[in-house]
Amino acid sequence: MIGKKSMIYVAVTAAMLASTSMAYAKTVCYVTAADSHAYVTPANLALQERAAELGIEILSLSQEFDVQKGTEQLNTCVARGVDGIILWPLDPQAYIPGLARAQQADIPSILINSPMDDAANQFIKSFTGPDVYEEGEMAADALSEAMGAKGTVVVIAGQAGNGTTIGRVAGFVDRLKETNAQIDVLDTVNADFDQQKALVVSRDLITRFGDKIQGVYANDDTMARGFIDAWKEANPSEPTPPIVGINGQKDAFESIRTGEMHATIVQSPIEDGKLAIDTMAEILDGKEVNIRLPIPLTVVTKENVESVEPAF
Amino acid sequence: MPRMIALVLKHRVAIILALTLTISGLIVPGYLSGTTLSLGLDRAAAIGLIATGLTVLLIAGQIDLSGGAIFALAGIVSVILQPSIGILPAAFVGVLVGGLSGAINGLLVVGLKVNSLVLTLATMLIFRAVAHWITNSQPVSGIDIMFSLAMAQIYLDIFSIRSTLFIVLIVLLHVWLTRTIPGRNVFAVGSNPTAAEESGIPAGRIIFFGFVFAGSLAGVAGVLQSLVTNTGSPVFGSELTVAVIAAVVVGGTRLEGGRGSALGTLGGVLIMAALTMAMEFQSVPAYIQQVVSGLILILLVVLDRTVHTRGRTAGAIPLLVTKNPITTGGKT
Question: A96 vs B149: CB contact, 8 Å cut-off?
């Protein structure tokens, strides 16, 4: 009888020891947008590498761009009792109840890359990621400089209603007004961050406005590429008007070298991933962090194209 | 010994559920806890509610692929009507949209005598397209996030509103299917519609109401999802249909009709939820999770065949098989 009892004590003590030693390394739940994507994958890798350096264990869950899956994965994070949650939101509201559950369980959460509605602010410690409004402003400055602050331009925007699109367009338009540039926007069309769609809408724009297109602002580099292709079809011998894109992709760097594009703005997925886990590490150490932490952005033109690393 | 094996095979769903929980509990630290149970049940509820409706349809020899699309559509309607008529009436209309969508499926299948696999494939595309159309492909937000927080609340440390609803409904369905004459008739329609019709069972009416029931429950699931997340989205539920069919089949309900059980579906839904959670706890990549779910599905279907080795007589092959261009090689 006694032997059995002491056996149980030993087992319980061993189990407790095992569980405390396992609890020593902090675990952070990372609900990412997807496993394989040109921008998301390098951000995921950078986050995981940095976490390994910091001695933080990452529980990585991929939403595969399915919001509903993401809201369920937040449940798993809470049930697992992790020490922190990093969420890549794909919807402005849907995750709020999950974040509230996390808060109830005393698990701090932060957002990476994309913002949510203000209603989410009371449930998160910070939002780390690019300031898309500022990207729009920087694009306005770059294009304005190339055009001597006057002329007429077209804007090729991303998806209607998408937070990134709204920020990048608003920043651009507001900045032009603020600097009193005499630049008029002929039209703003949506091409959903898709090269093929950008090609189609650009053909229309070129037919409608022709020489009046003295500058182009595309919400990302893939759509800028679409415009360049449409321009080459229509005017094979003429040089392209100044084109400004965003993201800093490799092929945009190539276009800047050849003069087809004027500028792009580098938003690095690696910085994006690193900043998120660094911020979480500070929270886990009990430090206060800023509610908004932007990643560094760089304007790339012909002048510095050789010295800056492309984002992806 | 053969009796032992028979007993094990009979309760294979419960045994696999118990095995899943035991093995997960041993391997995954912190898995067996009240929080896992409550949140696991909550996440199972969306799939479970649609699966409840689908169980009846499959037993009746029909299938509904449009559940995921109805789920999205009903949720969207319940969100966009909120500003004009209030949260609860909007939710009611959302469920109504689900029932109506099911009625459309039922009318077309019964009225036009179209194979349900093909027909609900078509309505799945249509309902999904309507969802994109009325929202302009953008997610829409509700008016009161506090209401969503209340809806997501866990009561007594275990139950959320939707997981309670799911469990109550599936138990009621079990009683209805096994203890009432209309319930038994569903099985008769599924195993041999001609014989059922000849013996005075209104096969068409049963199938029609089966679709209305399935549509309504997909609507309920969608509305609850939208209330909990305060969001209606045209892409919600796009991957649900396969998960739902898998859960029902794992639970022992036959795609061929005439055989199945509501409690089996409950078991199937819980097995899938327990597995997913265990693998997410261990950060198993999404594609490996799918492989494991697929293997469990194959295992249970094989076990199912072992239990029911006797073949069917030629005339007893139900609608979904005989009138299915896939199983008949294009001849209907």
Answer: yes
Helical segments of B136-261, H only = 145-151, 161-179, 181-191, 193-198, 203-229, 240-250
By residue count, chain B amounts to 332
Cross-chain Cβ contact A81/B35 below 8 Å: yes
Count of A-B CB contacts under 8 Å: 101
Domains annotated on chain A, with CATH? 2-124 (3.40.50.2300), 132-267 (3.40.50.2300)
Residues of chain A positioned with their CB less than 8 A from the CB of B161: none
Handedness of CA A250, A255, A259, A264 (dihedral sign): negative
Whether the CB of B293 is below 8 Å from some CB of chain A: the reply is no
Rounded Cα distance between B86 and A165, Å, is 31
Please give the average pLDDT of every successive group of 10 residues along chain B, which has 332 residues: 75 85 84 80 89 92 92 93 88 94 93 89 93 83 80 78 91 91 86 83 89 95 90 84 88 83 90 86 80 83 68 47 51 42
Q: What is the pLDDT of residue A7?
A: 54
The domains found in chain B, sorted by start residue, are 34-308+315-322 (1.10.3470)
Q: Give the whole-angstrom CA distance, residue A7 versus residue A12.
A: 9
Note the pLDDT tens digit of each residue in B239-292. 788 889 888 988 888 888 888 888 889 999 998 888 888 888 887 877 788 888
